[in-house]
Amino acid sequence: MSNNIIKYAKKIPTNKIPTSVPGLGAVIDSKEVFDAFKELLKTQKEIEAIRAEKEVYLAEIEAKYKTYKYLFDKVFEERDKSLNKFFDVIDQGIATNNVDMILAGMQNVTSIVQSSPLAQAKEMFVNTLQNGRKIEL
Q1: What would the DSSP string read from start to end of the chain?
Q2: Cβ distance 119 to 112 under 8 Å?
Q3: What is the pLDDT of residues 23-79, one digit of tens each?
Q4: Distance between CA 79 and CA 73 in Å, rounded?
Q5: I need a surface site. Which of 31, 77, 85, 132 has the fewest CB within 10 A?
């Protein structure tokens, strides 16, 4: 029987044997499309993760900015009040011709101007954290 198969196989013209299987190209193309789609989904997830991470970083930056702004506003507000108070003392000393009052006002203004507002802000921030208080923004 195997001799018959070989005999008949030799009779088949070689130009009639298909060189490709019909539909195989479509299957291969479908797999490539599917793989590309999986890659697209993976990339979209990565992009969303990066966007979420960006939002977290931006929120942290904004919170730090608000904290520092609040501290600096408070420190400079306190300095402004103190300076104005001592300038009022100097003005009163000038108005009453009181040299001691003028000198006291000038010494206090000088001591405020010589101190660093950044060091005051740091001290205020550290004290707030050490006392377990939260800074409301």
Answers
A1: -HHHHHHHHHHS-GGGS-SS-TTHHHHHHHHHHHHHHHHHHHHHHHHHHHHHHHHHHHHHHHHHHHHHHHHHHHHHHHHHHHHHHHHHHHHHHHHHT-HHHHHHHHHHHHHHHHS-HHHHHHHHHHHHHHTT-----
A2: no
A3: 555 556 677 778 888 899 999 999 999 999 999 999 989 988 888 788 778 878 888
A4: 10
A5: 132
Token digits for 128? 């707030």
Q: Strand, helix or coil at 76? A: helix
Q: Report yes or no: 28 and 21 within 8 Å, Cβ to Cβ.
A: no
Residue at token pair 């130009």: 15
Q: What is the pLDDT of residue 18?
A: 54
Name every residue whose Cβ is closer than 8 Å to that of residue 128 and which is 6 or more positions away in sequence.
Answer: 134, 135
- The CA distance from 97 to 108, in Å, is 18
**pTM score of the predicted model:** 0.46
The token pair at 54 is 């960006």
Residue holding tokens 């009453």? 96
- For tokens 């300076």, the residue is 83
DSSP state of 132: T
